[in-house]
Amino acid sequence: MSVEVRITKDFGAFKLDIDFKSESKRIGILGASGCGKSLTLKSIAGIEKPDKGRIAVGERTLYDSSKRIILTPQERRCGYLFQNYALFPTMTVAKNIGVGLKCGKTEREERVRNIMKRFGLEGLEKRFPGELSGGQQQRAALARIMVYEPDVILLDEPFSALDVYLKDKMQRECMELLKDYPGIVILVSHSRDEIYRFSEEAMVIDKGRIIVHKPTKELFANPETVEAARLTGCKNILEVIGEDGGKKIIGIRAHEFETVKPLSSDYFTFKVLEPRVTEDLFEYNITFRPAEESEHMLDWKISKYQWDMEHEGMPKEIYLKKEKILLLEQAYFL
Amino acid sequence: MEEMRGVFAGLDFSPLWISLKTGIAATIISFFLGIYAARKTVKATRGMKAILDGILTLPMILPPTVAGFFLLLIFSTRRPVGGFLLEEFDIKVIQSWAGCVVAATVIAFPLMYRNARAAFEQIDVNLIYAARTLGMSEFSIFWKVVIPSAGPGVASGTILTFARALGEYGATSMLAGNIPGKTGTISQKIAMVIQDGDYVTAGVWVFIVMIIAFLIVLVMNLIFGRNMKNVKRW
Fold first, then answer.
1. Chain B touched by A130 (CB under 8 Å)
2. Which member of B127, B137, B232 has the closest CB to residue A86?
3. CB of A242 within 8 A of CB of A322?
4. Residue ranges per domain, chain A?
5. What is the β-pairing status of strands A201-206 and A26-30?
6. pLDDT at B229 > cutoff 60
7. Residues A311-324: what's their mean pLDDT?
8. Are the Cβ atoms of A89 and B230 closer than 8 angstroms?
9. Residues A167-189: pLDDT tens digits?
10. DSSP code, position A75
């Protein structure tokens, strides 16, 4: 099954222009807030109406402006997990899960019971959402979506409002629960870690447009554009003069620097001048000037363990494998 | 005290029944009309919303006598609408109980509408989106998700509407008049006996109105309060 989304919507100052097709079952959309990633998800679910375009899941066309096809959200079979879960506060958990099911009372109760068991919600049938913990609420919201067996599940930044401990726990739980789900899942997030862990295929949206779209691992290895490099967490983005004399934009991930002098020649050497160190729990962040004449300061991150293992005090030089340099392009000129 | 007892013994209770009947009828009509209008307004575009809201709230801001004037203009049997109703359906709004209900509804309706609308606008719109993606029909979303979530606002609107309709005076006296046993409501009775200088009878009716008003508000709060488990105590 594939997903195809080609939509445009004009908001005046902001234009949404999304175009992608994917055969993958786990798709990640990475973007800063306000880039249009949530709008894209809402358009797929039918909550937001694009100006024109086409949205199809497998053989089913959900929206096609040229053929005047606009399915209602009710007809789209797209489950949507909201950041605040949007559980109905006046209904019990069991009622919340069963309320959308179109079947007889006995079958509904049976299905609700089964899904609650699968999602570890037994004993909470009569509780109201306000009486559940965050984790239970997420499970209830996912159960409510899954019981309805949608073709697509859309996750709209489900973890971004959580504290660090809970975030990791709930991400793992969510992935576990979605593991056996046969349909397509699209996750929207501004967190590169979430996208990296979750998706097989990822795209980066910036200012309403997709700037890169490829298999997740490849995207992180070669983000292609400045914007994507930044969103995938590349700390050092700078303009340099290449060997041919032309201007180039390159990216260097802060973790890629090495401290042990390499024997091979495929390395660049950087001086560590004016280093400023900030200490994190498990790593040091060092800002340094790579050469006397350089106007750029670079960021370098190294784990404390490695630091302690490899040397004492601040090294005079550090090294970077040539192939680790990311060659970047500006997606568009600002 | 003796005097009071004498007044109670010889009291014509028709104003009480007329007021209660009017209040209940006007509240029922306003309940559905108010919710309907609130729902339409919430879904309207911004400009449309401002216009609709202005028109729907007007009866609350204008003096009741102005509303009465317009109602007379519409329902006078010598005018098209009033004449049509009388000829085709044999309905006479002027100088009749129907007039009491119409006047009370027009005056009290904005309270229902405004409270319902404020309550609808407070609802997390994601709840409605979520309900749609779950395949719930718009009708069932409205009655199962919106109305229960808007419960407290709808309840207070209903209570206020009833209280206002029960005591309506200005528009009622113009449209329905004060025909004892037919359109003579408690408010009109009080005004009438005070003009006659009968303060004892007026006092008795004032007492009755206060008791009723208090009891009804109390009962409705208790009934609606039971369905509001999700509302947290401060």
1. yes
2. B127
3. no
4. 3-231, 236-328
5. parallel
6. no
7. 83
8. yes
9. 888 888 888 888 888 888 999 98
10. G
Q: In A, which residues are within 8 Å of B119 by CB distance?
A: none
Q: At B39, list the tokens.
A: 């729902």
How far CA B191 is from CA of B17, B97, B170, B198, B213, in Å, comes to 17, 18, 11, 10, 18
Q: What residues of B are in contact with residue A79 (Cβ under 8 Å)?
A: 133-134
Q: Which chain A residues are closer than 8 Å to B127 by Cβ?
A: 86, 88-89
A62, A87, A90, A99: best mutation site toward chain B, by most B Cβ within 10 Å?
A90
Length of chain A: 334
Question: Is residue A71 within 8 angstroms of chain B, CB to CB?
Answer: no
Instruction: Report yes or no: A99 at the B interface, CB cutoff 8 Å.
Output: yes
Which of A42, A100, A130 has the CB atom closest to B134's CB atom?
Answer: A100
Give the count of Cβ contacts less than 8 A between chain A and B: 70
Residue of chain B whose Cα is closest to the Cα of A154: B133
Instruction: Report yes or no: A45 at the B interface, CB cutoff 8 Å.
Output: yes
Strand pairing class (A15-22; A60-64): unpaired
Domains of chain B: 2-226 (1.10.3720.10)
Q: Check if the beta carbon of residue A47 is closer than 8 Å to that of residue B132.
A: yes
Cβ–Cβ contact B122 with A under 8 A: no
Nearest to B134 among A42, A46, A148 (CB): A148
Distance (Å) from the alpha carbon of A154 to chain B's nearest alpha carbon: 11
A46 sits in the region (left: phi over 0; alpha: psi -120 to 50; else beta) called left
Phi, psi of A261, rounded to the nearest 5 degrees = -60, 120
Rounded alpha-carbon distances, angstroms, from residue B230 to A83, A128, B113, B206:
20, 7, 23, 37
Model confidence at B233: pLDDT above 80 = no
CATH: 3.30.43.10, 3.40.50.300, 3.30.450.20, 1.10.1370.30. Which one for A3-231?
3.40.50.300
Residue A137 has pLDDT above 90, yes or no: no
Q: Does B195 touch chain A (CB under 8 A)?
A: no
User: pLDDT, tens digit, for every residue of B145-164?
Assistant: 888 888 878 888 888 888 88
A12-40 residue pLDDT tens: 888 888 888 988 889 999 888 888 888 88
The Cα A310–Cα A76 span in angstroms is 57
Q: Where are the beta strands (DSSP E) in chain A?
A: 3-10, 15-22, 26-30, 52-57, 60-64, 69-70, 78-81, 152-156, 184-189, 201-206, 209-215, 236-241, 247-252, 267-271, 273-279, 283-289, 298-303, 317-321, 326-328
Q: Which residue of chain B has the CA closest to A149? A: B134
- Whether B90 has a pLDDT exceeding 60, the answer reads yes
